[in-house]
């Protein structure tokens, strides 16, 4: 696993520049107490620390990143666990700290001081010149990768899962189809889309893939953009929503296809059997990689009564060089947080532009469904009047 020290270009002594900024306990779940104008920079720093990609310890399961102003975040290496596990740990830690342990008026933690703990000891490393050269070259490579990440974090407050459920639609299906519409408008076409589904119904289950770009979602988007009638668009949207929910159920219950294909690939490599089909399928790029990070897996506190503790949620980088990474967090009944990432080096992608397309897609689909709900209400009212 890579270890990066603060080694500026042309450095001659890595030891003299070593300044720890996080502890090696806990890449990619960000928790802060409130939204602010620097939320994007905060998320970027926890993810990869732009301009100085050091002290993100990927030989550890996670790193806690603590800032001078008391804000903190969690950077988690992904191989050992998935988002719900890390988010649950971090949310429990923050809620316990804020609502059970607490602080005194002078800002110190409540509780007894443990004076028998040994003081921290700084480790001074004797770094050979050959290793020092490798550190500097690795830092330059990491610097290039970190600087290339275009990160955009924003809250969507126009509505949340509460209003979506009133339309009798799954919130996840609604958001996923909205992402498909946003991508179509942003890039002028469709792409292979990855949505992570949990398989925690099984012992040591991790994830399965929901391929959320379906024939049904494409048909709805083409109808909507082709100015089909509202009734036809609503019919196609509900078909697409039902298809997505079915795909998600299959993935959760072990009936997905991608982990099966990957196992076949591993076996083919072990047996030395060449498979053109597997090579083709597994080499297709995921230009839209998405994931929902659950919050409040335990009811630790009331979000409405404690809005200052609403989290930014978590995010990750794009999977493909010309693609987007989108993480979304459903907060309570009335808000959805989004993390959008892409690469500056790709002229076809722009995280802020795509974020604007996501907002518009969400609003347009809600307008479409709300009109249907109003029509249904009016029809029911008319029937009641006649019966009277």
From TrEMBL:
Molecular function (Gene Ontology), one example: carnitine O-palmitoyltransferase activity
Topology with respect to the bilayer: Multi-pass membrane protein
GO cellular component, one term: membrane
GO biological process: carnitine metabolic process; fatty acid metabolic process
Main location: membrane
InterPro entries to which the protein is assigned, alphabetical: Carn_acyl_trans, CAT-like_dom_sf, Cho/carn_acyl_trans, Cho/carn_acyl_trans_2
A Pfam family of this chain: Carn_acyltransf
Keywords carried by this UniProt record: Acyltransferase, Fatty acid metabolism, Lipid metabolism, Membrane, Transferase, Transmembrane, Transmembrane helix
Location within or outside the cell: Membrane
Superkingdom, taxonomy of origin: Eukaryota
Domain Choline/carnitine acyltransferase: 56-359
Positions annotated as active site in the UniProt record: 78 (proton acceptor)
Family per similarity comment: Belongs to the carnitine/choline acetyltransferase family.
PANTHER family: CARNITINE O-ACYLTRANSFERASE, CARNITINE O-PALMITOYLTRANSFERASE
Name of the molecule in the record: Carnitine O-palmitoyltransferase 1, liver isoform-like
Organism: Kryptolebias marmoratus
